[in-house]
Amino acid sequence: MTELSPIDWAKRPIQKYAEFSGRAPRAEYWWFTLALIVAYIVVSIVESIIGIHKTVGPYGYLSVLVMLGTLVPSIAVGVRRLHDTNRSGWWLLIAIVPYLIFALAAGAAIASESMMALAGATILVGLLAFAGGIALLVFMVLPGTKGDNRYGADPYAGSGVTAAA
């Protein structure tokens, strides 16, 4: 059995850049997530040192480049991770839907000039986004389905690949 190192697991989503089918085990998802967090911290420090932080809203140019460069693999590994737990990748939308609701509610509140409605919509969106984020976190932490599921073969079965402890 081949044991992949944490760096190997973190590189897999980049190697599978836009692959939305199949399954991603917890090791692949979480090592990639940790690598992104470290990259963002390093880029933020570099931006602060060279004085280009907060040039694009709250972000610097380098942060925006990292975000854009990792957007597709981040979504893809999230979809594959949900597939590993036998859930549709559409569950990722639970993180976006509250903001769409807010945009509609804010438009209606502005049209009716009701600041109370806007405040209510803001609170509602905050609660929905929080609940959706917690649900996604639970889905990402749960172990994958043992054996094959409707999204493909078990990533650990038969491949000879194991996660490093």
Description:
The chain has about 160 residues and is mainly alpha-helical. It has two domains: about 80 residues, no CATH class; about 55 residues. The chain has a two-stranded parallel ribbon. Helix 1 packs across helix 2, helix 2 packs antiparallel against helix 3 and helix 4 packs antiparallel against helix 5. The longest helix has 27 residues. It is flat, with a radius of gyration of 19 Å.
Short synopsis of the structure:
The protein folds into 2 domains: 1-85, no CATH class; 88-141. The protein is 61% helix and 4% strand. The protein contains 5 helices and 2 strands, in the order βαααααβ.
Overview features:
single chain, 165 residues, mainly alpha, 2 domains, two-stranded parallel ribbon, flat
Low-confidence segments? none
Secondary structure category: mainly alpha
Helix content: 55-70%
The order of strands across the largest sheet is 1-2
Outline type: flat
Total strand count, please? 2
**Distance between the first and last residues' Cα:** 14 Å
> What's the helix-strand series?
EHHHHHE
Largest sheet: 2 strands, parallel
On the 0 to 100 scale, the average pLDDT is 87
Structure annotation, total helices: 5
How many domains make up the 3D coordinates? 2
Topology:
Elements: E1 2-4, H1 6-15, H2 26-50, H3 61-84, H4 97-111, H5 115-141, E2 161-163
Parallel strand pairs: 1-2
Helix pairs in contact: 1-2, 2-3, 4-5
